[in-house]
Design a protein that fits this description.
Blueprint (H helix, E strand, L loop, with lengths): L9 H14 L4 E3 L6 E3 L1 H27 L19 H18 L5 H18 L6 H16 L8 H23 L5 H4 L7 H16 L5 H7 L3 H30 L4 H52 L4 E5 L5 E4 L1 H7 L17 H17 L3 E9 L2 E13 L5 E10 L1 H23 L3 E6 L4 E4 L1 H7 L3 H4 L22 E4 L5 E13 L2 E10 L1 H29 L10 E6 L8 E9 L5 E11 L1 H19 L4 H13 L6 E9 L4 E7 L5 E3 L6 E2 L4 E2 L11 E5 L5 E5 L11 H17 L9 H15 L10 E7 L3 H5 L1
Parallel strand pairs: 17-20
Antiparallel strand pairs: 1-2, 3-4, 3-7, 5-6, 6-7, 8-9, 8-12, 10-11, 11-12, 13-23, 14-15, 15-16, 16-17, 17-21, 18-19, 18-22, 22-23
Helix pairs in contact: 1-11, 2-3, 2-8, 3-4, 3-5, 3-8, 4-5, 5-6, 5-8, 6-8, 9-10, 10-11, 17-18, 18-19, 20-21
Amino acid sequence: MNAWWCHVPGWKARAALKAARNSAGEAELRSAEGGLPFRTRMPALARAAALGAVVIALLAPAAALLGRLPHIPHLDLAPDHSPAMRPCPAVALLLLAGGQLLLLRRPSSRRTERGGQLAAAAAVVVALLPPIAPVATTGLVLVAAAQAAMLPRRRRSVLPGQWLALGAVVVGQVSLYGFLAPLTDPGRSLGPGGIAFGTALALSLLGAAAFLSRPDTGLAALLTNAGTTGLLGRCMVGVTLTVLPFMGWFQLAGQQAGWFGERLGTAVVLCLRMCTLLGGSFAVLALARRSERARSLAERKVGEYAQLQAFMDHTPAVIFTRGPDGRFLSVNSRFEKVFDVPLERIIGHRVEDLLPLETAAAAAAGDRAVLADGRAVQLETVMPQSDGPHSFLTTLFPLTDGSGKPYAVCGVALDVTDRVLARREIEQQRQRFRDLLEAGPDATVISDGGGVIVMVNAQAEKLLGWERAELLGRPLGLLLPGGAERAEGDGTDLCARHRDGHDFPVEISMSPLMTEDGLLVSAAIRDITERRQAEAERRTLYEQQRQTALTLQHSLMGTPPDLPRLPTASRYLASAQEAGVGGDWFDLVPLDGGRTGVLIGDVMGRGVDAAAVMGQLRAAAHALAQTGMAPDRLVTALDLFVSELPDQLVTCCYLVLDPAAGELTVCSAGHLPALLALPATAPKPLDAPISVPLGVGGVPHLQATHPLLPGTTLLLYTDGLVETPDTDIDGRIQLLTDTLGSALDDCPDGPGPAGAELDRIADRLLCALLPVPEEYDDDVTLLLLRLPEAEDAAS
């Protein structure tokens, strides 16, 4: 009868059976030949029974030999009609019992095997000596041959040896049967010489011991396996050795006692045999039912395992199970692909056979920890692969049986090479960042979103006087008292505090850093104490130079005379660059006949050079104007003068006001047009021919004459008032014209403003066109003139 697991193909069914039985708490062995399952206690019980049989078999021959010694009482437990055991069979039985004891010894060695062989050979020699009965000789030879065939190192002769041992058991049983059912003359029935009861019993016991000496192999495996075949075999052997001899004995004893005749005795035996067969049939049916249930359960377990194996095979992780001895019980297909090892070289092999020694040692230590503590363990190992070493994160956890005892270790390994490489890259980047942080010239303090310091460099330690360990975890306000909230601004007017308590000016550059831990803020702190001292010195020197330049500027421009008959208002704003020195100027020149010459000009460029040219032109123009020279001739003369100067261009406008004649004569050399506001008329640009700037040469300068009425207002200015980089100059001139007209309309005094009113108009014009004069990069000149009314002029 074959067990159900022999019909399930493949290693997976066997592994499923093992897992199912392990889950039931059964540790099993497998036969090398039949694939039969064994309980560890069954072979041990069989060997113990064999040892007990040998010990009992020793008693009969030992008692027979001791009884032949003088002064020792004869010990004979045989029936009265049994002949006494002769010395030769007793010696042979002692030799066979001793040889069997050597063969049952574990572990066996060549010396014990050789001793058993010699004992068996000696027993055969003794058995062949007369006058031993043929039946006894046959039994002794069978036992000796069985012992010789059952040596542990001989595998192929085990099965024949077991058959020989059974033959010896049968010889002994038949002889014992004769003693259980004795006839009138047993000596004649058993032949001359007969066989002693002790000899028959010892032959049966030694034959059984030889049969059970290899309980996991051959015929004995059918009786000692844990399956239904073992149970059924043990029942059948028990019935054969007990029930059938009892029925035969009962028939003969009944006939001898006169209970029934021969025919009735045959009927009684037949009835007993029918009952025995009927009971055996039902017992076999019960065992078959048990086998069917076990097979159904096992098939279900195999199906579940097949589903589990399919799930494992389609999982990208490496999954395996190992026994307590470190041998692989099952793996998924991913395991085979990753390690490029066929399945037959994995199942049943130890971890040391597949993995490097260092990795195998770590895996074995993990298995021991899991089995000892019953808790999961995580390991990170490096495995060699075809494309290089790969990192695996392995989780080991115990597989427990019904009682909670771990019987195996299951592992799930994930290839985390990319994660490890990414983590390594991140760590390298962090190291590079730390290196850059330490190599930076500035003190750097990095804080988290809450303003807690998490990192500083060596420059910060040196600058602030704190140790790195003392700063970590401290608030940023410790280093920037009152300035931590303003540190994200423009970085001006900030002070840092040294450990000794003194504050010093710093410049801070803040920048956000997005990391996996959240937002960090990096603050680069630079000590600007020396810079602030240098800036203060430079500001002092600049102010000194500026005052000197302004003094020079005013001295070169001079102070125009105060003309009572011609109210004026003037403004001059120095440039914010080049220490305030520029080339703008204006001048008022009293002429004969009540006339007045008005000059305004602008030397292109800035600085001392432009101021020097301006001073020369002003002096020349003033001297020429005093001669009463016409505007066009004066401008032409100035053009010749400027042409002799290297790389100079000048815009200039000269007007001659003649109130008595009621005329205005003007000549312009590239200068912006003056604004003319006649009484009760809106201001407008003065229409005059505008020629090229002074210094170009070769171009005639023309003049124009316009009527001049009492109460007329004139506005002369330089380009600094209306010229800006981002605006249209025509629009700015229009804004200036509109502002002048609005200012004239808002004058409260009479038909025309006086000098004080001209000052207010001048301030209004500057506010409208230059709201922030401190930020303007060009000098500005503005001149307002107002011809008095006729009555005022007469007085």
